[in-house]
Amino acid sequence: MTLSAFQEKMLNRVGFKITRLKMRDDLDIYSEVYGKDILNKKCFLNIGSGIFRHKLWVNLDHYSKRYRQNIVDVDIDLSISPKLPFQNNSFLGAYTSHTIEHLDIEAVENIFTEVWRVLSPNGIFRVTTPDADFVFENKYFSKYIDANYNNYFYGGKTNNRPESHRSSWNENKLKKLFDDNNFSTSYRSEYGKSKCPVMCNVDYFDNTHPWLSIYFEGKK
What we know:
The protein is of the alpha/beta class. The chain has helices at 5-13, 27-34, 105-118, 132-137, 139-142, 149-154, 156-159, 171-180, and strands at 44-47, 57-61, 74-75, 91-97, 119-130, 185-189, 213-219. α3 (105-118) links the parallel β4 (91-97) and β5 (119-130). It is globular.
């Protein structure tokens, strides 16, 4: 993902070193963890995938003129709480980055229910989203929100723009979502430190607004 000059400046201020890297060929990690047969399959699901692209991942997103640059394998509108078009236990891992805050709570609950269904046993679901507690408590950050806290997190409920937010999430809310949907364990994670080795590659994952994000995972 391409970072703006402002994003790079803010990340540098909070301790992240930004370097320009070519996407690494990480297929050896997949084969080491899951065996060589995995290289001929798409056993991982990215929900709200945007411009993400990896040969072993299925991109699920909703095409629109606003996001016409997105790379979509499965076009589906998550806002209407659909059943995902996949069989039970069909993915080894799932990931969503800065997507759930653009949906109403009921739609997010549906995503968690459906991800649990389509994940294989022991599969990991990794979620990253703006940390509502951090945004609320950090006065420095508030200078860079165009409007107030409520508009930042809930403006989409009035303007109906897909780029606007409709819900807010913190550690307690995310923990409850995982627990309510029968994940065997869930825990707060950190930038680039997934318990699923293939999701530790920050060339592909955790590269949207890491300085204000919360990372959370659940294991089926």
